[in-house]
Amino acid sequence: MDNRIFLIYGKDPGKMTKALLEAEDAASLIGDRGKRIVIKPNFVIAGDPSDGATTHTEITEAVLEYLRDNGFANLVIAEGSWVGSATEEAFRLLGYYGLAERYGAELINTKRDRFRKVTSHGITMEICETALDADFIINLPVLKGHCQTLMTHSMKNLKGFLSDRSKRDFHRLGLMKPIAAIADVIRPGLIISDSICGDLDFEEGGTPVETNRMMASTNSVLFDAFAAGLMGYKPEDIGYIKEAGKMGIGDIDPAHAEVIELNKPVASSARPRGTAQRLAAYTAPDDACSACFASLIHALKRMDEEGLLRKLGSRKIAIGQGYKGKNPEIGVGVCCSGADISVKGCPASADAIFNMLKEAALGK
Ligand code: SF4
Q: Which residues line ligand 1 (CB under 6 A)?
């Protein structure tokens, strides 16, 4: 199993996607040009990607362009929104009818597909034939928060391949074990993650956190375990990652990932909204990079969840390149290495920031 995770920072999802596809050498990974390739974006609802819920259309377009330019012609885009939401509305809003036509791809609303029953780890589910019969799946999840599972990314995005009946069953069964079970059945050959502005805490968006980062991996479980840290969690905090580890579906130790950064983040002014804006009141940014600032927001959210935010008192967390050579009280990332209390990283990860803030709040 390939344990590499590629990271890239920037504001152009199309270019970033191409760079990740090249880094993964996706054409060699897929192999035979006749293979039927299924591309799976995340359209939980019909929402603009800037709201933090849906995959940026530029990413899907860059994948299609890359595949066409490398001689692949049997292309499918497949997705089914959550129960009660019309997938066609997302296709229309996000420009997928034109996209499919331009690249000669089939566009499939998985809700209208045929389904076959599959049982995995004691969970019986109806999975669409498009996914079961694919030769190669490219998963395009959004890394974002989720009100029930805390986080949604590679494994949970596979729910879009289920019938509505199975989606309801998954909720009845508590989501965690079923999500791990589908990840054992459907194993995408490549995952390109949209972490441009995923939502802080809801899969349907509304509180996007500008992160300006994308990632790629071929290993769903390890990728999710690594992504949990970017959201301020340990892999075991996310029930379906823990279940996947217990079931032996994959490695959930992020220390086993080989993280390869294709570039470094650059300073950018973030404009947080909603809860993220409230949490940003605890920060004192000065030329902060969005990936680093997003990690701090996720760490502050964890502090809030643990009831520790108020224990920080009136202290504001320093972050950004403007703090180089300065001595703030608490700071984040290598730019703030001169702080009395600081956490390493460039960008710093949310789980490391959370641990540092927790200790500072508890006076350890
Ligand atoms: S440590 Fe400094 S340079 Fe590195 S990501 Fe954070 S703010 Fe940017």
A: 265, 288-289, 291-292, 319-321, 333-335, 346-347
Strand pairing category for 258-261 and 4-9: parallel
- The rounded distance, in Å, linking the Cα atoms of 230 and 224 is 10
3-state secondary structure of 330: strand
Distance 347 CA to ligand 1 centre (A): 5
pLDDT for residue 169 is more than 90: yes
CATH 3.40.50.11440, the chain: domain bounds: 4-261
Q: Which of 249, 218, 263 is nearest to 28 (CA)?
A: 218
Please state, in angstroms and rounded to a whole number, the distance separating the CA atoms of residues 242 and 250: 10
Q: What angle do CA 330, 332, 333 make, to 5 degrees?
A: 140
pLDDT at position 364 is 66
Identify the residue whose C-alpha is closest to ligand 1 atom 4: 346
User: Is CATH 3.40.50.11440 correct for 4-261?
Assistant: yes
| Nearest CA owner, ligand 1 atom 7 | 320
* Confidence grade of residue 278 (pLDDT, cut at 50, 70, 90): very high
pTM above 0.85, yes or no: yes
